[in-house]
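User: Round two. Same drill as before: sequence, then structure, for each protein.

Assistant: Same drill it is. First protein:
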Amino acid sequence: MQTPIPFIAPENFDSAESALARVRVIYDQSVTHLRLAMQRFVAGDDMQDRVRACYPCVRIETATDWTPPHDADHEPLSYGFVASAGVYTCTLTRPDLFAPYLLAQFDLLIRNHGVRLEVSTSKDPMPVHFSFAENEHMEGEMSAARRARMRDVFDLPDLTAMDDSIANGTWRGANGQPKPLSLFTGARTDYSLHRLRHYTGTSPSHFQNYVLFTNYQFYIDEFIALGHAEMAKPDSPYAVFVEPGNVITRRAGSSAQAGDALGTAPQRLPQMPAYHLVREGHSGITMVNIGVGPANAKTITDHIAVLRPHAWLMVGHCAGLRTTQQLGDYVLAHAYVREDHVLDEELPLWVPIPALAEIQLALEQAVAEVSGSLGHELKRIMRTGTVASTDNRNWELLPTSNVASTPQQRFSQSRAVALDMESATIAANGFRFRVPYGTLLCVSDKPLHGEIKLPGMANHFYRERVNQHLQIGIRALELLRAAGPAQLHSRKLRSFAEVAFQ
């Protein structure tokens, strides 16, 4: 048997606000239903009936193909519309977290298509794990036998309902099946929100819309110092600095808020710790130490993507491949050689990863401003070129004779000027998930030319360059924020059969 499923029948709405209000009601009803049942289950209730609750969904139907307006009053966007007539739908989660985003998407659909939004309870089950409150750990209170019986009572996460076929462009619906409105289903989003807490040690609610990735702790140390310095300024544009464990420092003169005391520094850092300089409207900066390797780079961007950030940038160290480069020089990537392999199944190698003009210009301007270099001097310290990313940290040790191809040969043929293990992955996942991306690396060694990092050289390099490099990354994000999201979400990242949501 099955206990009655909470259900709210479809209703049409003319405004984004009223549609979002109904999404909230449905979501809260489903979550409350699961939480109460789970509390009974943990307490030992002999529950014989299956307990189920479903995600809210939004649906539109348009009878005509859409053509963009050409008058000067309308700014062309790369999202906010469906290209062809038909029925479109998606399931939604966490309206508390995504409220501003959903309001913007709903409003664009109503304005661009002149349609009403239908909101109802979907038929897609909400896994009970995704109904838990942020600090609940109910499974830890049960015996192994009791945990094993959960699948007989509740819906557990179903991987078939949360794959990335929509984002990958491989989704094919059955005859009569509605097309997707969003890259991610409610369950796929919930899955990533839970993974973000695990990998970064911070709540998804703290993540900001402008993200820096790095592959060295030295950059994080500088970001922590900068975060605390900002919090000492009563007039800082940033209101809060958040560290792993949800440890919150508020701007000087601000009062503590409910929940601040729940933050506790972890005994050991999580795998990819995140730090957040929080600004109004999630317009601040998040920085994540992804560590070394393309697997980490893919993992973290797979999950941050559901938050729909406006841009992410890679700032880290690389090997310089040209004799003319010096330690401490910058490399602005305008193309990528993907020898990382972690995305080969999702994004074929024949797909080009284009440089995005808005990102490139912001990074170049930031280097000029922070370094004080212009013209020939700027060209001397910053090289624009191809960056190769490899999944083999010891590529230098591969045989170089009696083989058909070597890394050195491939890097030379591709005109690569720098090599790392993460940048191509981050750029490729940005392309895949329609998140504007860019890369500015700093040369820390030149293995092809016998210049490897020795302790003394490394210490001097870190003192001289890390702070400046971080300041450049932050300045680039400030420039992008000032230009506005509409300038960032390039149509280069959208296909001709695209979902409506940004």
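Second protein:
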Amino acid sequence: MQFDTWLLYLVSSIGLSLSPGPNGLLALTHGALHGSRKTLFTICGGAIGFVAVIALSMFGIGALIRSSLAWLTLLKWLGGAYLVWLGIQVWRAPPVTVAARAAPAAAGGWSLLRQGFLSAATNPKGLLFFTAFLPLFIDPQRSLPLQFAVMAATFVATEFATEFALASAAHRVRPWLERVGRRFNRACGGTFVVIGAALPLRA
């Protein structure tokens, strides 16, 4: 993966991590209920789930690329169209809200880890997103396993940092999201629209 392509992927990953999603909301909720240290179990479970989804998406794409490079071109255009559609949905989404609970139930680390993993691994939208998203950055001339390692590590790092920040600042972030959440959604949605429109046109 070329450095400029990786930078675009990094910016896209940050935008995805910041946009409203089930794992970010779960980290925010668990941070408010259980504290940031305990929510690390949730975040680690989500990271494992994301690696599994990225692997499933990427190596399935790799099989198509090996059969014909025309598939990569098609996937890039379909992926760009999907990102534009997703950006419009995020733009129109209502602000994220998290209901406060006075007496949170005790939760063990394994339970939180499992919740984070299942939230990432069983969300069909996640698989659809990565299947559309990853072809925009794949270089068919380079090693697919190496690109998988770079892409998975980059996304997991941005997702981990974002979710931990949400968990650590849960009580402060919640009212902020309720106040400026719609503008925040529009910024994330606009980013997806720009990426989806521009990346398929790159050589």
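The longest helix spans residues 36-67.

User: Perfect.
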